[in-house]
Amino acid sequence: MATISSIRTSGDRIEIIDQLLLPHTQEWIEIDTIEKAYEAIKSMKIRGAPAIGSLAALSVASYISASLTQDPRPDFFSSSFEFSKHIKPLLDHLFLARPTAVNLGAALDQIRNVLDAGVESHSPVEQIAREVIKTGRAVHEIDLGQNRAMGKWGGDWIVEAVKKSGGSGEEVNLMTVCNTGSLATSGYGTALGVITYLFEIQKLNKAYFTQSTPYHQGSRLTALELMTLEIPSVMVCDSMVGSLFQHHRIDAIVVGADRIAKNGDTANKIGTYNAAVLAARHKIPFLVIAPTSTIDLNTVDGSGIPIEHRPPIEARLVRGALFPATPDANGKYPQATVMVTPLEMKPEGVYNPSFDVTPAELITAIVTEKGVAVKENGAFDLKNVL
Ligand SMILES: CSC[C@H]1O[C@H](OP(=O)(O)O)[C@H](O)[C@@H]1O
After folding, report:
1. Active site annotated at which positions (predicted)?
2. Which site in 177, 242, 326, 363 is 20 to 30 Å from 383, CA atoms measured?
3. Ligand 1: residues whose CB is within 6 Å?
């Protein structure tokens, strides 16, 4: 099946597809500095919790790998202590790019741990550097396998749940929020991986997806991913979810996650909580699909999850292809950004959180690459899926 990826690498070279220009223009940007990685993550040229963790880790790996080949080598290779002292602030900086997704911090912490272990054991600096490179690159590679596993766990669980409630499980309808596909991960996707799996085993009837904010990533990115995969799909505006549940058979909601607290409270793209409340009202199973790196046992519940607010201007603008669409001489569709609010609107006149927190109470199951967790006596024990 055709897919679209967000990151491509060759040796030390990293490129990302500019997701702000999709679906109308496919433009690859080279990420040859850590600062460029930071800027791409912050501005959402790359997005999706696992994908931003991958890019951050890859950018550190490439920076070190390229520095190793310099002649003379930079001064920070003079000792393992100096090396760690130089790299750690770069990790701190990358971590600040987006605060909610725990995968970014988890990826950077893996590198931090390698540095600490290397300094503690007095390993030669070159050995530590090579270990960091290996670790940084592995973050990206491991993600893909995990997504396939989650797709199967989640998909099989949904089919069984539909059968238990009297359905055939042969024509499942799902709804999702945001974009959680190949573009948001190293490939296959999290919630979109479940949709893809059910499509592959011919048990999917239709995938519904919300437009989502910021940047309409559902209507731009999820739409593109589902069309590329040739999965039958229908877009709904976020405010139509209640109506959808009233008038159509939806067998389950599948969403990704940016951070799952110890008790199962889950931060995900804004609009997820609304969908969960409506799903509970309509008794539709609500599943969170995320790799174990998204589970943050240090955060006891959702009240401790930092919620990113995007710049107010982003909620006032829409970007897209000029319509009627006519390709220019290079075959590209001219795009424009337009303001939809009154021009005089003040920044304080806009509420623009990027995420909301869905309480565990509203979540039916949490699916990781290790399996499916359901509540026992009303509470999740996530140790079983870690
Ligand atoms: C691939 S699932 C993770 C998660 O990433 C998204 O965040 P963003 O697009 O803001 O980077 C979204 O909330 C997804 O569910």
Report:
1. 258 (proton donor)
2. 177
3. 47-50, 178, 180, 184-185, 190, 217, 256-258, 268-269, 354
Does pLDDT of 170 surpass 80?
yes
How does the average pLDDT of the chain come out, rounded? 95
Residue 125 has pLDDT above 80, yes or no: yes
* Concatenated DSSP letters of 294-320: GEETTS-SGGGS---B--HHHHHEEEE
Instruction: State if pTM tops 0.90.
Output: yes
Q: Is residue 327 part of a domain?
A: yes
Query: 296 and 157, same structural domain?
Result: yes
Residue with tokens 């290790």: 370
242, 271 Cβ separation under 8 angstroms: no
Residue 158: inside a domain: yes
Same domain, 99 and 130: yes
**Ligand 1 centroid – CA 129 distance (Å):** 30
- Residues tagged active-site: 258
Final residue before a domain boundary, out of 124, 143, 162:
143
ipTM of this predicted complex? Answer: 0.96
- Take atom 8 of ligand 1 and give the residue whose Cα is closest: 48
The CATH number given to whatever domain includes residue 62 is 1.20.120.420
Going by C-beta distance under 8 Å and a sequence separation of 6 or more, which residues neighbour residue 92? none
Looking at the fold, whether 271 and 373 belong to one and the same domain comes out as: yes
Strand partners, 206: 173
* CA 120 – ligand 1 centroid, Å: 36
Query: Measuring from atom 15 of ligand 1, which residue has the nearest CA?
Result: 256
Question: Quick one: 269 and 317 in the same domain?
Answer: no
Residue 17 sits in the same domain as residue 111: yes
Distance from the alpha carbon of residue 378 to the mean position of ligand 1, in angstroms: 27
Query: Which helix (H) or strand (E) segment is 358 a member of?
Result: strand 355-358
Q: Label residue 384 by pLDDT band (50, 70, 90).
A: confident
Q: What is the pLDDT of residues 66-114, one digit of tens each?
A: 999 999 999 999 999 999 999 999 999 999 999 888 889 999 999 999 9
pLDDT at 1 over 90: no
The edge-to-edge listing of strands for the beta sheet with 259-261 is 295-296, 259-261, 266-269, 355-358
Domain boundary among 117, 143, 169: 143
139: domain range?
A: 7-143
